[in-house]
Amino acid sequence: MAGGITYNGIAVVNGGQIFDGLKFWVAQRVPTRGTIVDHIQTNSGTVVLLEKQADYLIADHARKDAPSGAISWKFITESVENGVVQIPDRYKIAQAPTGPRHASSSRPTRGSRTAFTAQEDEILASWVLAHGKHKTGNEIYMEFGEMYPSHPWQSWRNRYVKKLSLLPHDVFLQMAARAANPSALQITDTGSQDQELPDPTALMLQRKGQRVQKETALQRNQERSQHVERNLAALPEPPTLPTSRAQLVQQQKEVEEADIAATTARNQFHEDLQWFSEENGIEIMLTQQIAGQPVALWELSKAVSEQNLPAEEIDWLLVAEDLGYNWLDVEAAVNALQRCYEENLAEFLAVMQDAFDDQPEEPGAAEAEGADREMAPWSRTRF
């Protein structure tokens, strides 16, 4: 902070009010900028970061790069020395307009815009690459603008920040490498259209797509291997040879009971599906022709339920493999199986699951819960 403010030789300890309500943008290269900012703030003014937010643009009248509409920094110092805001017209730089520049007003109309050429982009890329530590600063673009006045330095900076910096690094390096002799740069009128640059988003998406394809293929192979391992692990232990007639009879009884349970569950499924179709006035075929192969809805529902996943996470490729589709047909069957499931089974199974969840718990149900959960909802009495 600078020392105390004096108005006509009279010291003011807490500053004054001469800039009350006014907003100033102060250029970085104004002499003794810190003092200028301090004068504004100690006299109730506000310093803003963006030109469009300011009532006045404060710049160095001795420089040629002062923004349009700016006034000299002496407006601040002499206003403070005299204790009253001076007339801005006396301090205007070049063709600066009179009166305050309100934040809501538009900038003065400039001449027609000069488009950027491919050669200009290449030379700018080479220049920025050589000054890598100050890519987003102002000084390297001010210097570059003095060398190539076809665009204001602010336009050169915006061209890099908003266009060239978004390119993939290898494309940017190739552009810089193509820069010919910078001193021989010839500016040609290309109208109002800038040189079309490679779309950085398209380049990134293309590379991402190639990477995703490889990752998807690898993940699919891993899932298939895991599926095979789970199926092998689920296989029952080879039955031991019976050592007695009693054991043989017991084994035969267990097989028969398993067959009866499977048949009962399938029949219950068909009965519930028929009830559902009648209640909703629709017709559902128990066997559907899917991708050139007949598929029973009972088998499709089992293949889906074995994954025990939400509908949006079902691996339809594994479903197709479980239903016996060969490798030549499996890709075509995936979409057809999913569509058949959604059209014929999804709503039905949701209704059955709700009915199953709403049933009151009966005595002894806790002990049988594990066994019941292994069975489909329709295997119990319908709600």
Could you provide a short overview of the structure?
The protein has 383 residues and is an alpha/beta fold.
How is this fold's topology laid out?
Blueprint lengths: L4 E3 L2 E3 L10 E4 L6 H10 L3 E2 L8 E4 L10 E3 L1 H9 L35 H13 L8 H9 L5 H10 L6 H9 L22 H35 L10 H36 L6 E4 L2 E4 H9 L10 H7 L7 H15 L1 H13 L6 H10 L9
Helix pairs in contact: 3-6, 4-5, 10-11
List descriptors.
alpha/beta; 383 residues; two-stranded antiparallel ribbon; 13 helices; disordered C terminus
Can you walk through the features of this model?
By secondary structure, this protein is of the alpha/beta class. The chain has helices at 33-42, 74-82, 118-130, 139-147, 153-162, 169-177, 200-234, 245-280, 297-305, 316-322, 330-344, 346-358, 365-374; strands at 5-7, 10-12, 23-26, 46-47, 56-59, 70-72, 287-290, 293-296. It has a four-stranded parallel beta sheet with strand order 4-3-5-6. Strand 3, helix 1 (33-42) and strand 4 form a beta-alpha-beta unit.
Q: Bin the strand percentage.
A: 5-15%
Mean pLDDT: 77
Helix content: 40-55%
Work out the helix count: 13
Q: Which stretches are poorly predicted, pLDDT < 50 over at least 5 residues?
A: 6-14, 102-109, 181-191, 366-383
